[in-house]
């Protein structure tokens, strides 16, 4: 699907005009949005707009991090929106010049829809040009990062409080899952942060200088997001270390109990082994009370060792 908006020289707007008639209009600037375009619609990038093949290839194949490239006559941006389900990137390509902005994305995105409504629905924004459209798209993209980070913070709070009484093994699995999600977010956010830094410091984007304060605000949001992500990663590290320490402590206690039991039975096995050799000249074997005395000695050894271990504090929790 292709949707179009153009601002004419008389400050009147034209909506959803056909690209075939684009050259017939006297526009101050225009915006063409390629929303999940078909192959014939993609051909407009090649045949009519005549964009560089490398920028078209980067637009079609979603394998890129956010970046900014300069081509003859236009600047090319790749932005990463956030897929809320998987926390993976969804690419948006922008072809920007002083007189036009072309947005290209292979799936429908609420960020583009919101930016479209904001720009085309308010007459006061019509005169602000393509750089303002780029700002609106970037702003909507970055706004969608915050709910994902807040959701992760809520998950960490639930893990820390453990109101569901989950086992430490289950909680540890949840912590590692969250660390993986934070890693995905960090890759996207840091790449977008670096892109905004390039935009703010580029001398080849004169129209963007008019809205520098707006882009600076987005950059500040990305810095805040970076700090939040790093803070949450530190929390997950602390939780991971705590649960690993708890598991290790639990294992040590179990090993201590097993060690005590084994240690108590070593002398008992020794006594049982001696009287199990069945030599003929063992006077205790024929003694009337030999069995009971040996059994009593074994019980006494076991109780004595148990009391000794307890006095040494081996059973303290």
Key structural traits:
317 residues, alpha+beta, single chain, 7-stranded mixed sheet
The general outline is rod-shaped
For the record, give the distance between the C-alpha atoms at the N and C termini, rounded to a whole number: 67 Å
How are the strands of the biggest sheet laid out side by side? 2-1-3-7-6-5-4
The poorly predicted ranges are none
Instruction: State which percent range the strand residues make up.
Output: 5-15%
What structural class do helix, strand and pairing data support?
A: alpha+beta
Largest sheet: 7 strands, mixed
Supply the number of helical segments: 10
- Helix fraction, binned, reads 55-70%
- How are helices and strands ordered from N to C? EEEHHEEEEHHHHHHHH
Radius of gyration: 36 Å
> What is the average of the pLDDT values?
86
SSE topology:
Elements: E1 2-8, E2 13-15, E3 27-35, H1 39-47, H2 53-60, E4 67-71, E5 74-82, E6 89-96, E7 100-105, H3 110-121, H4 129-143, H5 145-161, H6 168-201, H7 206-209, H8 212-274, H9 283-286, H10 290-311
Parallel strand pairs: 3-7
Antiparallel strand pairs: 1-2, 1-3, 4-5, 5-6, 6-7
Write a brief caption for the model.
With 317 residues, the protein is α+β, with helices and mostly antiparallel strands.
Describe the structure.
This protein is α+β, with helices and mostly antiparallel strands and 317 residues long. The chain has helices at 39-47, 53-60, 110-121, 129-143, 145-161, 168-201, 206-209, 212-274, 283-286, 290-311, and strands at 2-8, 13-15, 27-35, 67-71, 74-82, 89-96, 100-105. Strand 1 (2-8) and strand 2 (13-15) form a beta hairpin. It is rod-shaped, with a radius of gyration of 36 Å. The mean pLDDT is 86.
């Amino acid at each position: 699907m292709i949707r179009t908006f153009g601002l004419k020289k008389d400050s009147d707007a034209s909506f959803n005009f056909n690209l075939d008639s684009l050259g017939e209009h006297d526009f101050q600037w225009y915006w063409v949005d390629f929303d999940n375009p078909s192959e014939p619609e993609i051909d407009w990038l090649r045949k009519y707009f005549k964009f560089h093949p490398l920028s078209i290839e980067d637009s079609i194949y979603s394998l890129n991090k956010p970046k900014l490239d300069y081509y003859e006559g236009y600047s090319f941006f790749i932005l990463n929106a956030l897929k809320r389900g998987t926390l993976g990137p969804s690419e948006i390509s922008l072809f920007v010049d002083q007189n036009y902005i072309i947005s290209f994305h292979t799936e429908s995105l609420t960020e583009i829809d919101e930016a479209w409504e904001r720009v085309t629905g308010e007459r006061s924004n019509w005169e602000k040009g393509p750089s303002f459209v780029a700002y609106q798209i970037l702003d909507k993209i970055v706004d969608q990062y915050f709910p994902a980070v807040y959701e992760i913070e809520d998950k960490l709070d639930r893990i820390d409080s453990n109101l569901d009484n989950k086992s430490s093994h289950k909680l540890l699995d949840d912590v590692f899952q969250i660390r993986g999600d934070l890693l995905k977010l960090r890759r996207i956010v840091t790449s977008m942060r670096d892109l905004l830094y390039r935009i703010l410091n580029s001398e080849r984007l004169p129209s963007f200088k008019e809205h520098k304060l707006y882009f600076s605000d987005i950059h500040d949001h990305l810095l805040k997001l970076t700090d939040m992500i790093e803070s949450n990663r530190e929390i997950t590290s602390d939780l991971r270390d705590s649960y690993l320490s708890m598991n290790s402590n639990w294992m040590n206690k179990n090993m201590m109990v097993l060690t005590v039991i084994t240690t108590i039975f070593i002398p008992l096995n020794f006594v049982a082994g001696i009287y199990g050799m069945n030599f003929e000249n063992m006077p205790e074997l024929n003694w009337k009370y030999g069995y009971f005395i040996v059994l009593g000695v074994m019980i006494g050894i076991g109780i004595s060792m148990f009391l000794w271990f307890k006095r040494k504090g081996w059973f303290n929790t």
